[in-house]
Amino acid sequence: METYGADPASGATAPYATAFSADLTAHSTSGPPADGTTATYGAGLPSISAPALAAPRPAVPAEPATAPAPAAPTAAAAPAELVTFTARETPSTAFSPGVYGGSWLPQDAGHSTQAERVVAFARAQIGRPCVWGAVGPGSYDAPGLSQAAWKAVGVTLPRTIQDQWGAGVQVSLADVQVGDLVFFHDDLGHVGIWSGDGMMIHAPGPGALIREESVFFAGQSAIKGAVRPA
């Protein structure tokens, strides 16, 4: 039989190749054969001490991040002092419905005379309804308006037209002044308040509105005369 590893040229046997003996027992070691099923786990591995096999050391939790300390508060600047401007008060001259009696306008409201204040009161009633027997403040009849206008400056007049005719000094139309009362018809059936420049303020009659118009609205012949309340 040809030996494995023989040199093809010389036929010499290589040093590492030997002839295999037919006796199989010659190649076994002394003693019982090793039991493959009971081999010790880890045989042939380096010996590791017990402490090295201990449970792994738990990881140390990382320390929580520390928030930076708040900066020391700085002194806040004092708020600027507010300067309040108060508008100069002006005395009101507007007529307030429901307010009646007493001096309606102060002396320094632009109406220097008593008569001018009478006319100012009467003019403030323009547009209000004329109602028979009404004396204000929401509506008036003719003598009710003249009575209320003069009462606003502290002068008391009688309630009826006929009585108002005798409650002052009679003046001619050439001498009439603002605030004077102008009477109409021979029976003194109507009265108005002279407002200047041939105009008057009056309550024409039931169903109409208080207005300012010419003293000649009914014709010059309808004018009876004028009276200046005392």
TrEMBL record:
Keywords: Hydrolase, Protease, Thiol protease
Family label: Belongs to the peptidase C40 family.
One Pfam family from the record: NLPC_P60
PANTHER family: NLP_P60 DOMAIN-CONTAINING PROTEIN-RELATED, PEPTIDOGLYCAN DL-ENDOPEPTIDASE CWLO
GO biological process: proteolysis
Molecular function GO labels: cysteine-type peptidase activity
Keyword Protease: yes
Classification via SUPFAM superfamilies: Cysteine proteinases (SSF54001)
Organism: Streptomyces afghaniensis 772
Domain NlpC/P60: 112-230
Name of the protein described by the UniProt record: Putative endopeptidase
Keyword Hydrolase: yes
InterPro entries the UniProt entry points to: NLP_P60_dom, Papain-like_cys_pep_sf, PG_Endopeptidase_C40
PROSITE patterns assigned to the protein according to its UniProt record, in alphabetical order: NLPC_P60
